[in-house]
Structure prediction request, 516 residues.
Amino acid sequence: MDTIAVLDFGSQTAQLIGRRIRECGVYAEILAGTEPIPESLVSEIRGIVLSGSPASVHEPESPRIHPSILELGVPVLGICYGLQQIVDAAGGRVSRAERREYGRSRLHLRQDHPLFNNVPDGFVSWMSHGDSLAELPADFVLIAESEHGLPAAVRNADSSIVGIQFHPEVSHCEYGTQILENFATGICKARQSWSMEQYVDTARTNIQSTAGEGSVLVLISGGVDSTVVAALILSALRKSQVHLMYVDTGLMRAGETEEVSTTLEQLGAEHVHIIDAKERFYDALEGKPDPEEKRRIIGDLFISIQQEELAARKIGEGFLAQGTLYTDMIESGKGVGKYAKVIKSHHNVRSPLVQKKRDDGLLIEPLSWLYKDEVRDLGRVLGLPEHVVGRHPFPGPGLAVRILGSVTPERVRVLQAADRIYIDELHKRKLYDRIWQAFCVLLPISSVGVAGDDRAYGGVVALRAVVSVDGMTADVYPFESRDILEISARITNEVPEVGRVVYDVSSKPPATIEWE
Prediction:
């Protein structure tokens, strides 16, 4: 199959580049940029994209493209750091910019080039760089510059190498997908032969090859990701091989366990195990306010309970399957290669027991190259109902990372009550499907207030609602004042422990969507 190789140098958005190219119908594969292209792929590569990186070309340990890659004779597109390392290697000069560029910047085209076919002059790009091109190599030509007069796109003499300083892969960049399509199908002449249906076929084949005749345990959280994984694995293997396990941690939304039980029954699984482990999780989390420690405790306890239950049911040691997404991997510093930075550890990625499963080859993660909206599309291809695939994301550690500070049964009860009102109101107001993710956060503070004519001292709940495409970037949902005021009033009236409600107006970046 015609393939565009996206070389990862530690970028938070390397997989997002690949995802945008796949949206154009061209298959893209993420590879480590510092290593040679696998021999099995060389004949299929039609073009190469060099990703960004948190590194600088001036750092002695900065990742560099493997020399053999540029000898393949296919077109190359360098993005941000990818551009800078090309220029640096070709004899140009990269220096710390006097004016750094972050966020929106209009681009002005100075020369026609097929990369910008059907892209108007003055479109809004998305920048994220502190280094800039101070001097181009001898055979390179400027084809676009930013509104600040800095080089934004260059090419070499025969246009076999093109570099851009901005990030076309992020949703805030106008015409970004068009630019990547121009590269993949126009410049590289790659055939548009990829689809989600094809991904399903490939994933099934990989699952069958990995699991063989072994048993597979799927840990179910009740969210979209684990439900889609369960449906995919049940469609790939004999149902007698597959065990679905839902661990009730006591950290779920109100009524979650009953809803999950109904969904699992509808999947047609032969083996469904519902485990009540509330007290074990509460005991393990007592007096543990640090979010990274919470995630580690929850991840390890999940695996420990799973192993105990397997032994008790005499199922035997087998494969573990979970709904890990690419965003989980990259935020946990587990992108392709070794240069991704840890943003926050996800319990299903960096937990030592989960990592041991990964190291032993006993982990099946068929969604680990996909983003949330792609997982929803996959669920639809598998025939899952819309109320399941359309649910807002919910973190694996559950309400533990939406309760800032120590987790107690009482604090969980308060947050569940407030959160149920919030989500119920969003459905009533027909806002739920307009929002990508919405939830309540219980803060570790109290605030003075008035109840009747008396002084009151109550907890503080923060409301969060964002719009996004893939979770890598997100904007705040612009509630009408009346909606947010009435939701706040209902929470403070019906949950007596809450005396104040605030609304989080931070975008991603600089904030993450979840608070912990």
User: Anything to note?
Assistant: The CA atoms of residues 248 and 276 lie 5 Å apart.
